[in-house]
Amino acid sequence: MLLDARGVGVRLGRLRAFIHRGTLQGAREGALRGWTVAVKDNIAVQGWPLTCASAALEGYQAPYSADVVQAVLGEGAAVVGKTNMDEFGMGSRSRHSAHGAVRNPRDTTRTAGGSSGGSAAAVGAGAVRAGLGSDTGGSVRLPASYCGVAGFKPSWGVLSRWGLVSYAPACDVVGLLARTAADCAVLFEALLPGSQCRDPTALALAPPGAPVALRALTFGVPREWAPFVCDARALDAVLQGTHVRVRSVSIPSLRDAAALYADYVCMQAASTLARYTGVFTGAGAVPRVSADADGFGAHVRAYQHARLGPEVVRRVDAGRRLLATPGCWEGAVARVQQLQAEFARVFADGCDLVLGPTARYAAPALDAPPDPDEDVFTVPASLAGLPAISLPLGARDARGVAGVVGTQLVGPPRSDWLLLQAARELEGLFQ
User: Fold this and answer.
1) Rounded to an integer, what distance in angstroms lies between the CA atom of residue 213 and that of residue 101?
2) Is the pTM above the cut of 0.85?
3) What is the 3-state secondary structure (H, E, C) of 324-377?
4) Which is nearest to 118 in space by CA: 172, 177, 173?
5) If you ran DSSP here, which 8-state letter would residue 245 be given?
């Protein structure tokens, strides 16, 4: 029995955080010895379900374990279950799931966020020390904000994605959830690819540099984010209570980042999810059975659209239409490159990190209507491939819940160690 923020008893099962429970014990020694880790259901664990919370994959079991799962086991952690999520990672509230919506452990009438809501809820409820998730546009950071935990999205290409089911490969990364940034840093180091990495896109990250004092860093706060802020209490507490050096900056592409993200990932999803829908995509494409012969694709082709949820069908169909429009993909790529260039100018102009909120507001009610701008603060780092972390700092609401809205830090490409160091120091100021 767990207690939510109101002191009400909550059974872990009521949260719907887990869709499969089991235990794989790791090595006898290692940096994660004694840790319990939950794994999002789009990351392969050999012999366990790999359904991406979709009825289309009901009964499918992973034939191997992802590199990141092998890494946590190799460092001594115990993997204790697969966690609920938005189907195929498509959502920001973990309610597009064949297993039902994930509830927030701090208030079960509210969402845990998505799409890694199950892992965030499991960490927030104290059921595990850490969770593995995936972050394509905020799917680790947004639930971290809503559940009052830390959520870290590494730079694109730093952690192996071997065994992560693809959604939008140009943005997908394995993300980490834990109670603290310090735990995220320990877990991150344990997951860094070694000689056995099977992901050809994973590149070695330089070791940490010399520590930099927090007071020596300059944080840029984008002016374009201001109109989207609904609850600034936590960010204001950070700005007023830490005396960090702050500079107002301009990143014009942030205004339309959410709309760009929607098009960019739907076009990728239409391609990568062709195995699930059983059709090819692109200009002049006609529905036909996919020719791939792997067991995973064959399992899904038997169902096609019939057992895919409406949000998945909507995004794939939207992506197919966009891909069939001449110049649409090329235009989206050009806009992503413009966003990357604008971030680069801010960092080159003396800002070490970008600072802002993670979410527009605290966790919405389970039945609250969707908000097209819900992930407006998280998608830019994903589009640009930058490392970002959400921290439960600052203000407390009427129930005393830390982190009404998470505080987000975004760093330059491959500045993961600097970002984690700054996050740990900021965290220490609020403990």
Assistant:
1) 42
2) yes
3) CCCCHHHHHHHHHHHHHHHHHHHHHCCCCEEEEECCCCCCCECCCCCCCCCCCC
4) 177
5) E
Report which of 1, 20, 2, 5 is spatially closest to residue 118, judged by C-alpha positions: 20
Report pLDDT for 413: 97
Residue entry with tokens 């969402």:
111
Structure tokens at 38: 């939950």
Q: Are 425 and 178 in contact (CB under 8 A)?
A: no
DSSP reduced 3-state for 178: strand
| Model pLDDT, residue 307 | 80
Counting every residue, how long is the chain? 431
pLDDT in tens, 358-403: 999 999 999 999 999 999 999 999 999 999 999 998 755 545 443 4
Is 315 within 8 Å of 93 (Cβ atoms)? no
What pLDDT does 410 receive?
98
DSSP letter (8 states) at residue 402: B
Neighbours of 71 (CB within 10 A): 26
Among the listed residues 180, 211, 217, the one whose alpha carbon sits nearest the alpha carbon of residue 421: 211
Question: Catalytic residue positions?
Answer: 40, 115, 139
CA distance 77 to 35: 5
Q: What are the C-alpha distances in Å from 193 to residues 125, 188, 406?
A: 29, 10, 29
What integer pLDDT is reported at residue 72 of this predicted model?
98
Q: What is the pLDDT of residue 296?
A: 56
Q: What is the pLDDT of residue 291?
A: 40
Nearest to 288 by CA among 298, 301, 272, 300: 301
The stretches in the chain having pLDDT less than 50 are 1, 3-9, 280-293, 398, 400-403
